[in-house]
Write a structure and sequence with these properties.
Elements lengths: L9 H4 L7 E5 L6 H14 L4 E3 L18 H13 L2 E5 L3 H9 L4 E4 L1 H4 L2 H14 L5 E4 L6 H13 L5 E5 L16 H10 L5 E3 L1 H5 L5 H10 L4 E5 L17 H10 L10 H41 L7 H17 L4 H30 L1
Parallel strand pairs: 1-2, 1-8, 2-3, 3-4, 4-5, 5-6, 6-7, 7-8
Helix pairs in contact: 2-3, 2-11, 4-6, 6-7, 12-14, 13-14
Length: about 375
């Protein structure tokens, strides 16, 4: 279901010359020299549109570096004056909003922890609305994979009269240990693009990866998924960074990265390409119809099994049978070059629907007898 947002296209509020929006800068403003020097190096690449820097840092535990504070806004102002780069910082309270706007910050973003709290988002939205300032606001996804929270935060900012809005995909926390600091969960980003297609979506490979080695891979994938920009942490000397040292890159490394990625077009004006694409999509549509019909036939058999179990007073769930299905189908899926995670998730969906149908059958019989 699509959501209607009253927003302006990205191209109307920042000129990127038809290229992806690039926001870059240190995780934290540490010293004036560190921030301004980094800004100059980023500006010299000719590839960066906006300088980012954390002024206030929401940390998990007290005693850690929680940002340099308001003085950093003056450093951002100086960096902007000397380089011409627009500036951006995170805000988490009404006071942050007030100070950032007073300092002439050009773009605000709402962090993942703030997005997870509707009260915090509303406070930020109210503060921006009361200021009467028309400023772009980017909303990061919440820490946990909750699409409704993400969309709700975007709607709150939009209802405050802000039309220059974008979403930042920075990955989601997960108990499972993987190569990523935050699991990208690309499917949630795709869902957001599907229900709000007019919303600019910007990828944050730094926070997804947690280490600079994986950033090129995630960057290319994000651009291939037609995301409109990137926000990448860049520090003049990442080895001595006060926060997130492992995931920051030097301005020179950032320039090399942006030179190496392939920026593809969302569409093609080649008639031959469009004709072939339409032909292949017709084949997919036909196969999708066949798949749904086959699933429907499978569920009819599952219903018969439910009736048989009911009449013989047998439980719905039989773990040994489920294990057998998974093992056999995963082996077949591998032979067909299908991913194991995809296969298991697909089987789980089928299994859950079968259980739901069989449960209905058993409960109907019980209700009739009662």
């Amino acid at each position: 279901m699509k959501h209607s947002l009253d927003i302006l296209p990205l191209s109307s509020w920042i000129d990127t010359n038809g290229k992806p929006l690039i926001i870059a800068g240190p995780c934290s403003a540490e010293t004036e020299e560190q921030l301004v020097s980094t800004a100059h190096l980023l500006a010299n690449t000719g590839k960066v549109n906006v300088l980012r820097a954390g002024i206030w840092k929401p940390r998990t535990r007290p005693g850690e570096f929680e940002g340099i504070g308001s003085i950093g806004l003056e450093w951002l102002k100086r960096a902007k004056e000397e380089t011409g780069l627009l500036t951006a910082t995170e805000v988490a309270t009404a006071q942050h909003v007030k100070e950032a706007l007073a300092a002439g910050v050009d773009v605000l973003w709402v962090g993942a922890r703030s997005t997870a709290n509707p009260f915090t988002v509303q406070e930020i939205a109210d503060a921006i609305q009361e200021s009467g300032v028309d400023i772009p606001v980017l909303i990061k996804n919440p820490v946990n994979p909750d699409l409704s929270l993400w969309l709700g935060a975007i709607e709150r900012i939009n209802r405050a009269g802000i039309k220059k809005i974008g979403a930042i995909h920075r990955g989601f926390s997960s108990y499972e240990k993987t190569a990523f600091r935050n699991e990208p969960m690309w499917d949630l980003a795709i869902q957001l693009k599907t229900i709000a297609p007019e919303l600019p979506l910007i990828n944050d490979p730094s926070h997804i990866c947690g280490n600079r080695e994986l950033i090129p891979y995630v960057t290319q994938k994000a651009l291939d998924m037609d995301m409109q920009g990137l926000i990448i942490e860049s520090h003049i000397d990442p080895s001595v960074a006060w926060t997130d040292a492992k995931q920051q890159v030097t301005p020179a490394a950032l320039a090399d990265l942006l030179d190496s990625v392939n920026v593809r077009k969302a569409e093609s004006n080649n008639p031959a390409f469009e004709d072939k694409l339409a032909e292949l999509r017709q084949q997919i549509d036909k196969l999708d119809d066949q798949i749904l019909k086959t699933i429907g036939d499978r569920m009819k058999i599952a219903e018969k099994i439910g009736e048989y179990k009911r009449d013989n007073n047998v439980t719905i769930l039989q773990v040994s049978r489920w294990d057998e299905i998974v093992q056999k189908r995963v082996q077949l899926a591998k032979a067909l070059n299908l991913g194991e995670d995809f296969t298991v998730k697909y089987l789980e969906l089928l299994h859950n629907e079968s259980i739901r149908k069989q449960n209905e059958i058993m409960n109907v019989k019980t209700a009739t007898e009662a």
